[in-house]
Design brief:
The protein is an alpha/beta fold and 363 residues long. Helices cover 39% and strands 25% of the residues. The chain is built from 14 helices and 17 strands. Keywords: 4Fe-4S, Chaperone, Cytoplasm, Heme, Iron, Iron-sulfur, Metal-binding, S-adenosyl-L-methionine.
Length: 363
């Protein structure tokens, strides 16, 4: 069994108006103390019998850490686990933090995949979102990354933004897909409780549910037309560039999270770290709360598999097979799902309604 490591880096230069992920302001001392705490925790979980084949630095803005800090973390992982020589090592990055020098340093310490928080290729939409970069800066960051030798670059795209139209979405997709990128993660904007976007002014400018659905289906069509196959509800990739780390989540494979707000599915339990960087730094090792004593039972396994375009193998559902097959015909007829008798998978239209379709099928 292999293992994926997720390192939550909770620093942001500026909090985006729509974001409810755990993040705090960056200071040099806090980043240094955080890095030392991460190193302690990697040593705490040390197991040389475990082969780590994916490492993911998420956030926050992990690229705010210095290359030396990131290198020390990767070096500790290599010393505490059996780090696969072909491991996928990803770092999320804000375009403004990606200089040619930083990109060269990241390549030299072993980072081989970038996830760039672009969100839109229209400056007016970026301003509404509260992003600090422009479309031109994002474009340059991707070009610089390719020039530095990165051959596995992902960009984030957000849809159903305030005042967004099919034309403005099409512009972003066309401009983004002309860049040397191999993967796109695309998300429908949701107004999260307690964020600045959680207000009547923003809600009044968001597309209605029907328009958001049309934007999603148009996005799927445009991305697939340009060689980015949908392999998960919100993820698209050129052949062979699917995110190996994120696929662990959807396939109920083990992953270990380190850092405040990090989640894990490890050694038969799901657990989470408190959203508290000061507590994380102060503790000898991170304090976790077990959230599931027996994860990946039938319902969870089936639900996660149905998030993937490859779908659910009916060989894996045992006694539930007959019930699933009985429920399928109306979903197939309405264009929400497909089956070849051995597998069941959702269509793009089904992904739009995935929560209710999956609930109908497996609960």
């Amino acid at each position: 069994m292999t293992l994926g490591l997720y390192i939550h880096v909770p620093f942001c230069g500026k909090k985006c108006a729509y974001c409810d992920f755990y993040s705090v302001g960056w200071t040099r001392q806090r980043a240094e103390d955080y890095t030392e705490a991460v190193l302690r925790n990697i040593r705490h979980y040390s197991d040389k019998a475990q082969t780590v084949d994916t490492v993911y630095f998420g956030g926050g803005t992990p690229s705010l850490l210095t290359s030396a800090q990131l290198q020390s973390i990767i070096k500790e992982i290599n010393g505490s686990f059996a780090l696969d020589g072909a491991a996928e090592i990803t770092i999320e990055a804000n375009p403004c933090t990606l200089t040619p020098q930083k990109l060269s340093e990241l390549r030299s310490i072993g980072v081989n995949r970038l996830s760039v928080g672009v969100q839109s290729m229209r400056d007016e939409e970026l301003r509404v979102l509260g992003r600090v970069h422009t479309a031109e800066r994002a474009e340059q960051a991707v070009l610089d990354a390719a020039a530095a030798g990165f051959g596995n670059i992902s960009c984030d795209l957000m849809i159903a933004l305030p005042d967004q139209t099919a034309e403005s979405l099409r512009y972003s997709i066309e401009r983004m897909t002309t860049l040397p990128v191999q993967h796109i993660s695309a998300y429908i904007l949701k107004t999260e409780e307690g964020t600045p976007f959680d207000c009547e002014e923003i809600r009044g400018r968001l597309p209605d549910e029907e328009t958001a659905a049309e934007l999603y289906l148009e996005m799927v069509r445009l991305l697939e037309e340009r060689g980015f196959a949908q392999y998960e509800v919100s993820n698209f990739a050129k052949k062979g560039f699917e995110s190996r780390h994120n696929c662990r989540y959807w396939k109920c494979m083990d992953y270990l999270g380190i850092g405040p707000a990090a989640h894990s599915c490890y050694k038969g339990k799901r657990f989470a770290v408190e959203r508290d960087i000061d507590g994380f730094i102060a503790a000898p090792f991170q304090q976790v709360t077990v959230t599931d004593e027996a994860p990946c039972g039938f319902e969870e396994f089936a639900m996660l598999r149905l998030r993937l375009r490859e779908g659910l193998s009916l060989c894996d559902v045992g006694e539930h097979r007959a019930e699933i097959m009985k429920k399928l015909p109306p979903l197939v007829k309405e264009g929400y799902a497909q089956t070849d008798g051995e597998r069941v998978w959702l269509t793009a239209k089904g992904f739009l309604m995935s929560n209710s379709v999956i609930e109908y099928l497996i609960f």
